[in-house]
Amino acid sequence: MHPEFDVDLLRTFVAVVETGSFTKASTTVHRSQAAVSMQIKRLETMLGTTLFARNTRNLSLTRPGNTLLEYARRVLALHEEAWSAIVRPEVTGRVVLGAPDDYVSSLLSPVLRRFSNLYPHVEIEIVCAQSTSLAPMLADNKIDLAFVTRDRKLRGEFVRSEPMVWVGASLDTPVLAASPLPVGLYEPGCVARQHTLAALDGARIRYRAAFSSASLMGLVATVDAGLSVIALTRCSVPSRLAILGEAQGLPKIAPLEIVVARSAKSDRPTCDYLAAQMVQDLSLRPQAAMRGAAAA
């Protein structure tokens, strides 16, 4: 008789795949990194095969790992649907959620998948824009919820601190030798730009604002072209780019605080449930977030 799959083991396995590291997965499943490693080892022992190909920089699935991933997602989806069908009320409606595109791609995908499994009849419209643009939309009730960087206009419920890091095309990108240093910045008024400039000014580094964009992809394009360095939240850094730091002569940057903010007209169950899901799945204590992501 074959051993039965433990749903918790499958949930941890999927979390590691979706986050790309054991450390990030530990925050998703609310366990220590050591516990996550032990669960993956148990799963591999049970199956008699290796699920991840590990090296110093990357964590990738083996062929058996890819096969298991498809089934694990189906098992977890059925588990959530069964729970929802019996325990939770039938919820219908529509939620308009605003968030910057980098937060949507790097943080919200697992949340939206879980929420849709629990509440399959709720329609979610996603508005991708920078936090500075979402603040007036929230005030005008054009969006219900905003998953955004906290500032004076956007307070909301605290979810997590995200460390900011310097990013370049490589660890020895030639732009580091330029003086003044060419820097790509988010649009004026945003907190990420304020923190970036404060770090440069505090370290008395000569720089020039070579590029400015409200788009993550716009800034990344300048780095790909070898024209600037930029500062991003760690969760938003494309894997092809290098994370720079004090070894390259760049200063530490204050982290960003991410919150769930609500409009005046969001007082309804659909919004309540989605806001609670984001807080539950993504909450991190500030000190935990500052440790950053590490490979297995």
Automatic annotation (TrEMBL):
Pfam families reported for this sequence: HTH_1 (PF00126), LysR_substrate (PF03466)
Keyword Transit peptide recorded: no
Family annotation (InterPro entries): LTTR, LysR_HTH_N, LysR_subst-bd, WH-like_DNA-bd_sf, WH_DNA-bd_sf
Assigned keywords, A-Z: DNA-binding, Transcription, Transcription regulation
Residues annotated as domain HTH lysR-type: 5-62
PROSITE patterns: HTH_LYSR
Origin: domain of life: Bacteria
A Gene Ontology molecular function term of the record: DNA-binding transcription factor activity
Membership in a protein family: Belongs to the LysR transcriptional regulatory family.
PANTHER family in UniProt: HTH-TYPE TRANSCRIPTIONAL REGULATOR LRHA-RELATED, TRANSCRIPTIONAL REGULATOR
Name listed for the protein in its UniProt record: LysR substrate-binding domain-containing protein
